[in-house]
Automatic annotation (TrEMBL):
Family annotation (SMART domains): AAA (SM00382)
InterPro entries associated with the record: AAA+_ATPase, ATPase_AAA_core, Clp_ATPase_C, ClpA/B, ClpA_ClpB, P-loop_NTPase
An annotated Gene Ontology molecular function: ATP binding
Name the UniProt record assigns to this protein: Chaperone protein ClpB
Keywords: ATP-binding, Nucleotide-binding
Cellular component GO terms, alphabetical: cytoplasm
Coiled coil: none
Domain AAA+ ATPase per the UniProt entry, residue ranges: 42-209
Any single GO BP term: cellular response to heat
Length: 332
């Protein structure tokens, strides 16, 4: 099976709570890969909508990784439209007569590799003049302000937007279909209905329920403990399931999704483990050396992370017998 045919299962294994959006996005890619050529059009022109922290950008990054493997870093070009809100920034992106265009150079790089993904994040933040130009990218041949005409026929063009996010966050219990209708309607109001119709696919991310965010937090906590364990050169375990419940309680947000969870996990766990972090003296830093316990110490000394009041705390412990992580109770 081709990478496009297995994209659906690949994304489902890595993005939680987004089965409908994954199905729509994967179908758009598979149609482009296996369907007939459509002269004069980009491979796919996708509008990806949904609340902050639901995985819009992550889905595109994962798709690039799956489709292009080790070359994914070069086959994905991403622009944050929040950086192009002013008129002078439009010239930087689209160029001017005799001046290079950042966006044009990105398309040239993708074409030199045989195509790829062009990701334009949060398009609603772009300057109106820029937004008008970007929304013409359904046409494969685009002339930019630097005077050069570029071919997008080998590129997937994906635009993300948070339009309708606030309304969607209040509709978590209304079902995906109702959320999708509301979010698309908001996009049609802002961009105009006929403009939204130019996209070959409109994909809407679901809001993340408490249960889904709990599963996401479990994964974030496990990865954070791995990073901190390597940093501190000690094994680290959680004392009980209250650690995860505490973090979810602090980080759950219908509005911010997984983005807020990541911040909470990293800050609370990091604060608890900071006293055990290796310190780098000025002399050691100049030599590029870090003062830390030897590798052997890591497996005989550890830390136990537990809830203490309104924070997390860590206590040193010598390993006498294996401890069982309690995160699996949520992920099962």
């Amino acid at each position: 099976m081709s990478a496009a045919q297995t994209l659906d299962s690949f994304l489902r294994s890595r993005l939680l709570g987004q089965d409908e959006a994954i199905r729509e996005f994967s179908s758009a890619v598979d149609r482009a890969e296996s369907g007939p050529e459509r002269p004069g059009r980009t491979r796919a022109f996708v509008l990806l909508l949904g609340p902050t922290g639901t995985g819009k950008t992550e889905m595109v990054k994962l798709a690039a990784r799956h489709l292009y493997g080790g070359d994914s870093g070069r086959r994905l070009e991403r622009f944050d439209m929040g950086e192009y809100q002013h008129r002078d920034s439009v010239l930087r992106l689209l160029g001017a007569p005799g001046q290079p265009a950042l966006l044009g150079a990105a398309v040239d790089r993708l074409n030199a590799l045989g195509g790829g993904l062009l990701l334009l994040d949060e398009i609603e933040k772009a300057h109106p003049d820029l937004l008008t130009s970007l929304l013409s990218f359904d046409d494969a041949r685009t002339t930019m302000a630097d005077g050069k005409t570029r071919d997008l026929s080998r590129c997937y063009v994906v635009m993300t937007s948070n339009l309708g996010a606030a309304e969607a966050a209040q509709m978590a219990h209304n079902g995906y279909s109702a959320i999708r209708r509301k979010v698309v309607r908001e996009a049609e109001t802002f961009l105009r209905k006929e403009t939204v119709a130019r996209f070959s696919s409109v994909v809407v991310m679901n809001t993340l329920t408490y249960e889904v965010q709990e599963r996401i937090a479990a994964g974030l906590l496990e990865r954070e403990l791995e990073v901190q364990s390597e940093h501190c050169r000690r094994w680290i375990e959680v004392a009980d399931s209250r650690v995860l419940s505490f973090l979810v309680g602090k980080g759950f947000s219908p509005d911010l999704g997984a983005r807020n969870l990541r911040r909470v996990v990293e800050s609370y766990v990091g604060d608890a483990l900071r006293p055990f972090a290796p310190r780098v003296t000025a002399a050691a830093a100049s030599e590029g050396d870090r003062k830390r316990p030897g590798l052997g110490d890591r497996w005989s000394h550890g830390l136990v992370l537990a809830v203490e009041g309104d924070a997390l705390a860590a206590w040193p412990l010598r390993r006498s017998e294996p401890l069982v992580r309690l995160l699996s109770a949520v992920s099962d």
